[in-house]
Amino acid sequence: MDFSPLYISMKTAIFSTLITFLLGIFAARKVMNMNEKISWFFDELFTLPLVLPPTVAGFLLLIIFGKNGMIGKVFEKIGVEIVFTWEATVLAAVVISFPLMYRSAKGAFEQVDLNLIYAGRTLGISEFKIFCKIVMPLALPGIVSGGILAFARALGEFGATIMIAGNIPGITQTMPVAIYMAVQGNNMEVAAMWVGIIIVIAFLAIILMNFVTHKNRSYIKKG
Amino acid sequence: MSLYVDIKKKYKGFDLDVSLENKGQRLGILGASGCGKSLTLKCIAGIEKPDEGKIVLNQKVLFDSSNRINLRPQKRKVGYMFQNYALFPNMTVAKNIEIGIERTRDKHHIVEKMINLFQLDGLENRYPYSLSGGQQQRVALARILAFEPEVLLLDEPFSAMDSYLKEQLQQELLEVLKKYEVDTLIVSHSRDEIYKLCNNMAIIEKGKMIELGNTKDIFYNPINAATARLTGCKNISKAYKISDFEVAALNWNIVLKTKKKVTEDITYVGIRAHDIRCGDPLVMENTMQVTCVGITETPFEWNVLLHNRDESSFGKNIWWKITKGYWKEILKEKAPNRISFPSEKLVLLK
Q: In this protein, which residues make up the domain named ABC transporter (chain B) (predicted)?
């Protein structure tokens, strides 16, 4: 039995979640500070991967990062190849899971009472300190649950991954791809085992999410 | 200690145009909800940016559109108490007070002093959700004063409180403000609050500042109809001058003799609901035949709604507030059919 899909999936999900987590928070802050017309455009753009079929996202990624793509060409010049490498699984997972993180973070930030930020400013607290000590702690439950959602989504990513990273066992074959391949080869026991593992991980993620959300809200809810 | 404000700003529904000056006193800003009072405070604090104008606090220019000066709120040293107090819910009382204190000062000592001063002992480690409205207000004040602002802005400080708590807290606030001798601007839609707390006041209507002066002067001798309405004059009628001591009240269809000399620019005449008296049947001057259309009882007085019996002005409400004693002894618990407008109580308005 080859456990490399579990290892690859976890590695991909962890790396991509780290990237989406920071990128999502950053993008949410940026969009909130933009003027209305521009922010509307970026909001659409950042949410798009959520509504597009993953294969469509994968196709677009192929066009952009492929050997003849805009960015692919640049990478090729410096000797970096993306398509059909492990990095491609991360790329696919980041793009697909990004909207979940972005939207959760934006929602969480928007819920923070603006008056608290204003109060902080009039009390002479720097913008950075306001963000770290007031906005982040209050938005944390939403942000963390966004991160967990993004992780779960990255773990389950199939369509875009197979388009851009393919199915190379030991390198780009993630659990969802392994399930598909196992079923194709009529290897139902192997497929069932991967399904079981994914269900367990998904379950743990939900428990973790509820735990974090609940714990962080304790100072508001108790009353 | 001085604050000078002269600002203009286009806003939803109205244009803000306020100019006021405060010299070391408590200044109240009275206006109806959504008239631009809070917006004025936000402009002073730097939360909102005026389109043009100038704001100067103790010789320090906070905002000056002609010189492109717009200090960040952090640099203004303006203490702003929000309507909902805006305590940081993720911090304890002590942390809330501590966060605005500069690094170079003895934080621990200041927090302790504030906790003592505002009678918050024992609450240091509690979170804001577990405090009562009054305690929350004290923490908010302690937090602001620990930061040592040069001016204090209070935005509807009592709007979130039960009426029975209010009076006690107003008294407490007044004592704190006197002790600290910090310049204070209080915004409110409640004339009682302004009257109790402020020596000077400004009236804002639809974004425009229409009157500024001593609180008692404005309450007892309002100049504008809007001021009269905001300071609690319930009965206001359009009017024009007949002679030096006579006006015609158009809405009431009556000619009224006045004690004060009538100016040329009079456009309204008013009388407070408390100042109406029962009409003497032998005196015709300043009296009116009325029909009572509604009576309500409140704990300390009767509110009577009257209409002129004269057809041509029928339907114009006249409010009369009658103390329980007067109602019982003089009126014998019955609304009279003739009322009088005492000439010395008439308010002549522009």
A: 2-231
Residue B153, both tokens: 């802005």
Strand order in the sheet with B183-188: B69-70, B60-64, B52-57, B3-11, B14-22, B208-214, B200-205, B26-30, B183-188, B151-155, B78-81
Mean pLDDT (chain B) is 89
Residue A134 dihedral angles phi and psi, to the nearest 5°: -120, -60
Domains of chain B: residue spans and CATH? 3-226 (3.40.50.300), 233-349 (no CATH)
Straight-line distance from the first to the last Cα atom of chain A, in angstroms, rounded to the nearest whole number: 53
- Distance, in Å, from the CA atom of B19 to the CA atom of B54, rounded to the nearest integer, reads 9
Q: Strand B151-155 vs strand B183-188: parallel, antiparallel, or unpaired?
A: parallel
Q: Kindly provide the ipTM of the predicted complex, given to two decimals.
A: 0.83
Tokens of B280: 């003497």
Shortest CA distance to B144 belongs to which of B114, B167, B107? Answer: B114
B-chain CB neighbours of A118 within 8 Å are 42, 45, 47, 73, 80, 82, 86
Q: What is the pLDDT of residue A221?
A: 44
**The two three-digit tokens of residue B1, written as one number:** 């200690």
- Is residue A160's pLDDT more than 70? yes
CA gap B140, B93 in Å, rounded: 9
- Tell me whether residue B96 is exposed, middle or buried, using C-beta atoms within 10 angstroms of its C-beta: 0 to 12, 13 to 18, 19 or more: buried
**Strand B78-81, strand B69-70: pairing:** unpaired
User: Cβ of B317 under 8 Å from any chain A Cβ?
Assistant: no
Chain B residues with CB under 8 Å of A220 CB are 89, 129
CB contact under 8 A, A220 and B129: yes
Mean of pLDDT values over A205-211: 86
Beta-carbon neighbour count of residue B273 at 10 Å?
Answer: 17
Place of tokens 């269809």: B253
Domain A3-216 architecture = Orthogonal Bundle (1.10)
The pLDDT of residue A70: 86
Q: Strands B183-188, B26-30: parallel, antiparallel or unpaired by DSSP?
A: parallel
Extract the tokens encoding A208.
């973790």
Domain boundaries, chain A: 3-216
